[in-house]
Design brief:
Number of domains: 1
Protein name: HTH cro/C1-type domain-containing protein
Strand content: under 5%
Shape: globular
GO molecular function: DNA binding
Largest sheet: none
InterPro entries: Cro/C1-type_HTH, Lambda_DNA-bd_dom_sf
Structural class: mainly alpha
């Protein structure tokens, strides 16, 4: 499995899943903080727009905070392996 920094993270999927959960970026940031991984709500916006890539370890936290599988946050074009 690729290291977290190599995961083909999808900001578009993050935005869709966050909206589906009925959360604002601030609320998702708060959930991440409660899980022990603080992240600023503006950072989440940058991730969603593809301006920034997540730091190592953040995608699994986002998945947990959104109650989805990590694969749900990955780009469809991810490499098999």
């Amino acid at each position: 499995m690729p290291r977290p920094t190599q995961l083909p993270f999808s900001g578009t999927r993050l935005a869709r899943l966050r909206a589906r959960a009925g959360l604002t970026n601030a609320e998702l940031a708060e959930r991440c903080g409660q899980l022990g991984h603080p992240v600023h709500h503006t950072t989440l916006g940058k991730l969603e727009r593809g301006v920034q890539m997540p730091r190592p370890g953040l995608p699994p936290v986002l998945a947990e905070a959104l109650d989805v599988e990590l694969d749900d946050l990955l780009d469809d074009a991810r490499a098999a392996g």
